[in-house]
Design brief:
globular; 358 residues; Rossmann fold; 2 domains
Length: 358
Protein backbone atom coordinates (compact mmCIF):
# COMPACT_ATOMS: atom_id res chain seq x y z
CA UNK A 1 0.00 0.00 0.00
CA UNK A 2 1.27 3.50 -0.84
CA UNK A 3 1.23 5.76 2.23
CA UNK A 4 0.73 9.48 1.58
CA UNK A 5 1.69 11.98 4.25
CA UNK A 6 0.27 15.47 4.33
CA UNK A 7 2.91 18.25 4.42
CA UNK A 8 3.87 19.64 7.78
CA UNK A 9 2.32 23.10 7.80
CA UNK A 10 4.21 24.37 10.81
CA UNK A 11 7.31 26.49 10.15
CA UNK A 12 9.82 26.35 7.29
CA UNK A 13 8.72 29.57 5.55
CA UNK A 14 6.45 30.05 2.55
CA UNK A 15 8.95 28.63 0.03
CA UNK A 16 9.55 25.51 2.12
CA UNK A 17 5.82 25.07 2.56
CA UNK A 18 5.25 25.43 -1.18
CA UNK A 19 7.90 22.80 -1.93
CA UNK A 20 6.30 20.43 0.56
CA UNK A 21 2.89 20.93 -1.05
CA UNK A 22 4.30 20.28 -4.52
CA UNK A 23 6.05 17.13 -3.31
CA UNK A 24 2.85 15.90 -1.72
CA UNK A 25 0.88 16.61 -4.89
CA UNK A 26 3.48 14.82 -7.01
CA UNK A 27 3.46 11.79 -4.73
CA UNK A 28 -0.34 11.77 -4.71
CA UNK A 29 -0.45 11.93 -8.51
CA UNK A 30 2.07 9.10 -8.83
CA UNK A 31 0.14 7.01 -6.32
CA UNK A 32 -3.09 7.63 -8.23
CA UNK A 33 -1.46 6.72 -11.56
CA UNK A 34 -0.01 3.56 -9.99
CA UNK A 35 -3.43 2.63 -8.65
CA UNK A 36 -5.12 3.18 -12.04
CA UNK A 37 -2.45 1.14 -13.84
CA UNK A 38 -2.80 -1.65 -11.29
CA UNK A 39 -6.60 -1.67 -11.71
CA UNK A 40 -6.29 -1.71 -15.52
CA UNK A 41 -3.80 -4.58 -15.46
CA UNK A 42 -5.89 -6.51 -12.93
CA UNK A 43 -9.05 -5.91 -14.95
CA UNK A 44 -7.46 -7.03 -18.20
CA UNK A 45 -6.08 -10.14 -16.51
CA UNK A 46 -9.47 -10.88 -14.94
CA UNK A 47 -11.17 -10.57 -18.34
CA UNK A 48 -8.51 -12.67 -20.09
CA UNK A 49 -8.69 -15.47 -17.51
CA UNK A 50 -12.49 -15.38 -17.52
CA UNK A 51 -12.63 -15.57 -21.31
CA UNK A 52 -10.12 -18.46 -21.35
CA UNK A 53 -12.25 -20.30 -18.81
CA UNK A 54 -15.50 -19.59 -20.69
CA UNK A 55 -14.15 -20.93 -23.98
CA UNK A 56 -13.67 -24.25 -22.21
CA UNK A 57 -16.88 -24.19 -20.20
CA UNK A 58 -19.26 -23.43 -23.05
CA UNK A 59 -19.12 -25.78 -26.01
CA UNK A 60 -20.66 -24.91 -29.35
CA UNK A 61 -24.39 -25.48 -29.62
CA UNK A 62 -25.06 -26.38 -33.25
CA UNK A 63 -22.57 -26.93 -36.06
CA UNK A 64 -20.42 -24.73 -38.25
CA UNK A 65 -21.55 -24.52 -41.88
CA UNK A 66 -19.24 -23.21 -44.58
CA UNK A 67 -20.93 -20.34 -46.43
CA UNK A 68 -18.57 -18.94 -49.07
CA UNK A 69 -15.66 -17.60 -47.02
CA UNK A 70 -17.57 -17.70 -43.71
CA UNK A 71 -18.37 -20.36 -41.16
CA UNK A 72 -21.77 -19.73 -39.60
CA UNK A 73 -23.20 -21.59 -36.63
CA UNK A 74 -26.56 -23.29 -37.19
CA UNK A 75 -28.55 -25.20 -34.55
CA UNK A 76 -31.54 -27.18 -35.88
CA UNK A 77 -33.74 -29.51 -33.82
CA UNK A 78 -37.10 -31.27 -34.15
CA UNK A 79 -39.05 -32.50 -37.15
CA UNK A 80 -42.10 -31.31 -39.07
CA UNK A 81 -42.55 -28.88 -41.93
CA UNK A 82 -42.68 -25.98 -42.53
CA UNK A 83 -39.36 -25.27 -40.83
CA UNK A 84 -39.26 -22.46 -38.27
CA UNK A 85 -36.32 -20.01 -38.52
CA UNK A 86 -35.43 -17.93 -35.46
CA UNK A 87 -33.70 -14.57 -36.04
CA UNK A 88 -32.31 -12.83 -32.94
CA UNK A 89 -32.30 -9.20 -31.93
CA UNK A 90 -29.21 -7.00 -31.79
CA UNK A 91 -26.28 -8.40 -29.73
CA UNK A 92 -28.24 -11.57 -28.86
CA UNK A 93 -26.70 -14.92 -29.89
CA UNK A 94 -28.68 -17.95 -31.03
CA UNK A 95 -28.63 -19.18 -27.42
CA UNK A 96 -31.01 -16.33 -26.67
CA UNK A 97 -33.77 -18.64 -27.97
CA UNK A 98 -32.97 -21.29 -25.37
CA UNK A 99 -36.33 -20.86 -23.60
CA UNK A 100 -38.20 -21.04 -26.91
CA UNK A 101 -36.54 -23.50 -29.28
CA UNK A 102 -36.98 -26.75 -27.28
CA UNK A 103 -40.76 -26.28 -27.10
CA UNK A 104 -41.08 -25.43 -30.80
CA UNK A 105 -39.05 -28.56 -31.57
CA UNK A 106 -41.88 -30.62 -30.07
CA UNK A 107 -44.03 -29.93 -33.13
CA UNK A 108 -41.74 -28.55 -35.89
CA UNK A 109 -38.26 -28.46 -37.34
CA UNK A 110 -36.73 -25.29 -35.88
CA UNK A 111 -33.38 -23.59 -36.54
CA UNK A 112 -31.63 -20.82 -34.67
CA UNK A 113 -28.33 -19.43 -35.90
CA UNK A 114 -25.58 -17.00 -35.03
CA UNK A 115 -25.43 -14.41 -37.76
CA UNK A 116 -21.97 -13.30 -38.83
CA UNK A 117 -19.97 -11.96 -35.90
CA UNK A 118 -22.28 -13.42 -33.28
CA UNK A 119 -21.82 -16.45 -31.03
CA UNK A 120 -19.87 -19.22 -32.73
CA UNK A 121 -19.96 -17.62 -36.20
CA UNK A 122 -17.14 -15.86 -38.02
CA UNK A 123 -17.22 -12.08 -38.46
CA UNK A 124 -18.80 -11.14 -41.78
CA UNK A 125 -18.27 -8.46 -44.40
CA UNK A 126 -19.46 -4.95 -43.66
CA UNK A 127 -21.70 -3.03 -43.80
CA UNK A 128 -24.00 -5.27 -41.75
CA UNK A 129 -27.33 -4.38 -43.32
CA UNK A 130 -30.52 -6.43 -43.30
CA UNK A 131 -29.96 -7.22 -46.97
CA UNK A 132 -26.48 -8.59 -46.27
CA UNK A 133 -27.78 -10.63 -43.33
CA UNK A 134 -30.75 -12.03 -45.27
CA UNK A 135 -28.47 -12.99 -48.17
CA UNK A 136 -26.15 -14.85 -45.80
CA UNK A 137 -29.09 -16.60 -44.13
CA UNK A 138 -30.37 -17.92 -47.45
CA UNK A 139 -26.90 -19.22 -48.33
CA UNK A 140 -26.58 -20.82 -44.89
CA UNK A 141 -29.89 -22.70 -45.17
CA UNK A 142 -29.02 -23.90 -48.65
CA UNK A 143 -25.54 -25.07 -47.60
CA UNK A 144 -27.01 -26.94 -44.62
CA UNK A 145 -29.77 -28.58 -46.68
CA UNK A 146 -32.52 -26.99 -44.59
CA UNK A 147 -35.16 -26.62 -47.27
CA UNK A 148 -38.24 -24.46 -47.16
CA UNK A 149 -40.87 -23.40 -46.86
CA UNK A 150 -40.24 -21.49 -43.66
CA UNK A 151 -42.09 -19.73 -40.90
CA UNK A 152 -39.83 -16.80 -40.05
CA UNK A 153 -39.57 -15.47 -36.48
CA UNK A 154 -37.79 -12.16 -35.87
CA UNK A 155 -37.15 -10.46 -32.54
CA UNK A 156 -36.33 -6.72 -32.42
CA UNK A 157 -33.85 -5.92 -35.23
CA UNK A 158 -34.30 -9.51 -36.39
CA UNK A 159 -37.75 -8.44 -37.61
CA UNK A 160 -36.11 -6.33 -40.33
CA UNK A 161 -33.99 -9.28 -41.42
CA UNK A 162 -36.85 -11.76 -41.80
CA UNK A 163 -38.95 -9.23 -43.70
CA UNK A 164 -36.10 -8.51 -46.13
CA UNK A 165 -35.53 -12.27 -46.47
CA UNK A 166 -39.21 -12.67 -47.39
CA UNK A 167 -38.98 -9.90 -49.97
CA UNK A 168 -35.99 -11.62 -51.56
CA UNK A 169 -37.44 -15.14 -51.43
CA UNK A 170 -41.24 -14.86 -51.29
CA UNK A 171 -41.88 -18.48 -52.31
CA UNK A 172 -39.80 -19.71 -49.34
CA UNK A 173 -41.88 -18.03 -46.63
CA UNK A 174 -45.37 -19.15 -45.63
CA UNK A 175 -45.78 -17.44 -42.25
CA UNK A 176 -44.19 -14.99 -39.85
CA UNK A 177 -44.04 -14.03 -36.18
CA UNK A 178 -42.65 -10.59 -35.27
CA UNK A 179 -41.55 -10.38 -31.62
CA UNK A 180 -41.58 -6.73 -30.51
CA UNK A 181 -39.87 -6.21 -33.84
CA UNK A 182 -38.20 -3.02 -35.02
CA UNK A 183 -40.34 -0.63 -37.03
CA UNK A 184 -39.20 1.22 -40.15
CA UNK A 185 -41.01 4.24 -38.68
CA UNK A 186 -39.01 4.12 -35.45
CA UNK A 187 -38.06 7.78 -35.81
CA UNK A 188 -41.70 8.64 -35.21
CA UNK A 189 -41.20 7.35 -31.71
CA UNK A 190 -37.85 8.97 -31.10
CA UNK A 191 -41.06 9.61 -30.57
CA UNK A 192 -42.51 12.35 -28.31
CA UNK A 193 -38.98 13.35 -27.39
CA UNK A 194 -38.19 17.07 -27.22
CA UNK A 195 -35.24 18.00 -29.51
CA UNK A 196 -32.91 18.59 -26.55
CA UNK A 197 -33.76 15.19 -25.03
CA UNK A 198 -33.29 13.47 -28.39
CA UNK A 199 -29.88 15.11 -28.81
CA UNK A 200 -28.88 14.03 -25.30
CA UNK A 201 -30.01 10.47 -26.03
CA UNK A 202 -27.97 10.41 -29.25
CA UNK A 203 -24.92 11.70 -27.39
CA UNK A 204 -25.36 9.03 -24.70
CA UNK A 205 -25.48 6.34 -27.39
CA UNK A 206 -22.33 7.64 -29.07
CA UNK A 207 -20.53 7.83 -25.73
CA UNK A 208 -21.69 4.33 -24.87
CA UNK A 209 -20.35 2.95 -28.16
CA UNK A 210 -16.93 4.44 -27.32
CA UNK A 211 -16.85 3.23 -23.72
CA UNK A 212 -18.33 -0.23 -24.26
CA UNK A 213 -15.21 -1.89 -25.73
CA UNK A 214 -13.18 -0.63 -22.77
CA UNK A 215 -15.55 -1.89 -20.07
CA UNK A 216 -15.56 -5.30 -21.77
CA UNK A 217 -11.79 -5.47 -22.32
CA UNK A 218 -10.95 -4.50 -18.76
CA UNK A 219 -13.44 -6.81 -17.06
CA UNK A 220 -15.96 -4.21 -15.88
CA UNK A 221 -18.86 -5.76 -17.81
CA UNK A 222 -17.93 -9.24 -16.55
CA UNK A 223 -17.74 -8.04 -12.95
CA UNK A 224 -20.76 -5.76 -12.80
CA UNK A 225 -22.82 -6.34 -15.97
CA UNK A 226 -26.00 -8.37 -15.64
CA UNK A 227 -26.31 -9.06 -19.36
CA UNK A 228 -29.22 -9.74 -21.69
CA UNK A 229 -31.95 -11.86 -20.13
CA UNK A 230 -30.73 -11.30 -16.59
CA UNK A 231 -33.21 -12.61 -14.05
CA UNK A 232 -34.83 -15.03 -16.48
CA UNK A 233 -32.06 -17.61 -17.02
CA UNK A 234 -30.24 -19.98 -14.68
CA UNK A 235 -26.85 -18.64 -13.61
CA UNK A 236 -24.72 -20.89 -15.87
CA UNK A 237 -26.88 -20.18 -18.91
CA UNK A 238 -26.82 -16.45 -18.19
CA UNK A 239 -23.04 -16.57 -18.04
CA UNK A 240 -22.98 -18.39 -21.38
CA UNK A 241 -25.19 -15.78 -23.05
CA UNK A 242 -23.05 -13.02 -21.54
CA UNK A 243 -19.85 -14.66 -22.80
CA UNK A 244 -21.24 -14.91 -26.32
CA UNK A 245 -22.86 -11.48 -26.50
CA UNK A 246 -19.89 -9.61 -24.99
CA UNK A 247 -17.34 -10.94 -27.46
CA UNK A 248 -15.62 -8.04 -29.27
CA UNK A 249 -16.61 -9.48 -32.66
CA UNK A 250 -20.26 -9.57 -31.59
CA UNK A 251 -20.18 -5.96 -30.40
CA UNK A 252 -18.52 -4.87 -33.66
CA UNK A 253 -21.20 -6.67 -35.68
CA UNK A 254 -23.98 -5.10 -33.60
CA UNK A 255 -22.39 -1.66 -33.89
CA UNK A 256 -22.26 -2.01 -37.68
CA UNK A 257 -25.92 -3.06 -37.72
CA UNK A 258 -26.85 0.05 -35.78
CA UNK A 259 -24.69 2.33 -37.92
CA UNK A 260 -26.44 1.00 -41.05
CA UNK A 261 -29.96 1.24 -39.60
CA UNK A 262 -31.13 3.87 -42.09
CA UNK A 263 -30.00 1.65 -44.96
CA UNK A 264 -31.77 -1.35 -43.44
CA UNK A 265 -34.90 0.77 -43.09
CA UNK A 266 -34.83 1.49 -46.82
CA UNK A 267 -34.34 -2.22 -47.52
CA UNK A 268 -37.25 -3.31 -45.34
CA UNK A 269 -39.53 -0.72 -46.98
CA UNK A 270 -38.50 -2.06 -50.40
CA UNK A 271 -39.33 -5.62 -49.27
CA UNK A 272 -43.04 -4.78 -49.34
CA UNK A 273 -45.87 -6.33 -47.37
CA UNK A 274 -46.59 -9.96 -46.55
CA UNK A 275 -49.68 -10.56 -48.66
CA UNK A 276 -52.01 -13.08 -47.03
CA UNK A 277 -49.41 -15.01 -45.04
CA UNK A 278 -50.36 -15.75 -41.44
CA UNK A 279 -48.69 -13.10 -39.30
CA UNK A 280 -48.65 -12.63 -35.54
CA UNK A 281 -47.15 -9.51 -33.98
CA UNK A 282 -46.19 -9.87 -30.32
CA UNK A 283 -45.90 -6.49 -28.60
CA UNK A 284 -44.29 -5.78 -25.23
CA UNK A 285 -46.78 -4.11 -22.92
CA UNK A 286 -44.16 -2.79 -20.53
CA UNK A 287 -42.12 0.24 -21.52
CA UNK A 288 -38.34 0.25 -21.17
CA UNK A 289 -37.76 2.44 -18.14
CA UNK A 290 -35.52 5.43 -18.71
CA UNK A 291 -34.91 7.46 -15.55
CA UNK A 292 -33.69 10.38 -17.67
CA UNK A 293 -37.18 10.90 -19.15
CA UNK A 294 -40.36 12.12 -17.42
CA UNK A 295 -42.99 9.41 -16.98
CA UNK A 296 -45.45 11.18 -19.28
CA UNK A 297 -42.95 11.05 -22.16
CA UNK A 298 -42.25 7.37 -21.50
CA UNK A 299 -45.99 6.69 -21.50
CA UNK A 300 -46.41 8.55 -24.79
CA UNK A 301 -43.54 6.62 -26.34
CA UNK A 302 -45.12 3.33 -25.26
CA UNK A 303 -48.47 4.43 -26.67
CA UNK A 304 -46.93 5.26 -30.05
CA UNK A 305 -44.99 1.99 -30.08
CA UNK A 306 -47.97 -0.19 -29.16
CA UNK A 307 -50.87 1.47 -30.92
CA UNK A 308 -49.21 2.91 -34.02
CA UNK A 309 -45.95 1.25 -34.95
CA UNK A 310 -46.67 -2.30 -33.79
CA UNK A 311 -50.27 -2.11 -34.93
CA UNK A 312 -49.05 -1.07 -38.37
CA UNK A 313 -46.85 -4.18 -38.51
CA UNK A 314 -49.92 -6.36 -37.94
CA UNK A 315 -51.40 -4.80 -41.11
CA UNK A 316 -48.49 -6.01 -43.23
CA UNK A 317 -50.63 -9.09 -43.93
CA UNK A 318 -54.32 -9.47 -44.58
CA UNK A 319 -54.14 -12.26 -42.00
CA UNK A 320 -52.10 -10.36 -39.45
CA UNK A 321 -52.97 -9.85 -35.82
CA UNK A 322 -51.36 -8.15 -32.84
CA UNK A 323 -51.10 -9.65 -29.36
CA UNK A 324 -50.07 -7.27 -26.57
CA UNK A 325 -48.26 -8.88 -23.63
CA UNK A 326 -48.96 -6.60 -20.65
CA UNK A 327 -46.46 -8.25 -18.31
CA UNK A 328 -43.50 -8.44 -20.70
CA UNK A 329 -40.86 -5.94 -21.72
CA UNK A 330 -38.88 -5.90 -24.95
CA UNK A 331 -37.01 -9.14 -24.24
CA UNK A 332 -40.05 -11.35 -24.81
CA UNK A 333 -38.06 -14.52 -25.72
CA UNK A 334 -36.57 -14.40 -22.20
CA UNK A 335 -39.51 -12.96 -20.26
CA UNK A 336 -42.48 -14.69 -21.87
CA UNK A 337 -41.21 -17.61 -23.98
CA UNK A 338 -44.60 -19.37 -23.78
CA UNK A 339 -46.17 -16.49 -25.71
CA UNK A 340 -43.57 -16.88 -28.47
CA UNK A 341 -44.08 -20.64 -28.68
CA UNK A 342 -47.86 -20.21 -28.80
CA UNK A 343 -47.66 -17.59 -31.56
CA UNK A 344 -45.27 -19.73 -33.59
CA UNK A 345 -47.53 -22.75 -33.20
CA UNK A 346 -50.54 -20.75 -34.41
CA UNK A 347 -48.74 -19.28 -37.43
CA UNK A 348 -47.16 -22.67 -38.23
CA UNK A 349 -50.46 -24.55 -37.98
CA UNK A 350 -52.27 -22.00 -40.15
CA UNK A 351 -49.49 -22.03 -42.77
CA UNK A 352 -49.41 -25.80 -42.75
CA UNK A 353 -53.16 -26.01 -43.33
CA UNK A 354 -53.08 -23.36 -46.07
CA UNK A 355 -50.22 -24.82 -48.05
CA UNK A 356 -50.61 -28.54 -47.40
CA UNK A 357 -46.91 -28.74 -46.59
CA UNK A 358 -45.98 -31.79 -44.55
Amino acid sequence: MVQIRMPDLAGGGSRGFARQVLRWLARSALALIALVVALVVAGAAYQSIGTWRDTRRFVQQGKSIQVDSLKLNLDCTGQGRPTVILESGSTIPARGWVRVQPDIARFARVCSYDRAGYGWSDPGPEPRTSLQIATELKALLQAAGERGPYVMVGHSFGGFNVRVFTGLHPSDVVGMVLVDASSEDYQEGAYALPPAARQLQDEDERLGSLIEPLIIRFGVARLFGKGTGSGYLPKALQEEVNYLSWQPKARRAAASEWEQMDQSVRQVRAAGDLGDRPLIVLTAGKSQEDPSLPKEIQDEQQNIWTNRLQAAEAHLSTRGKQIILPDSGHLIPFQDPEAVVSAVHEAWTTARASTGVR
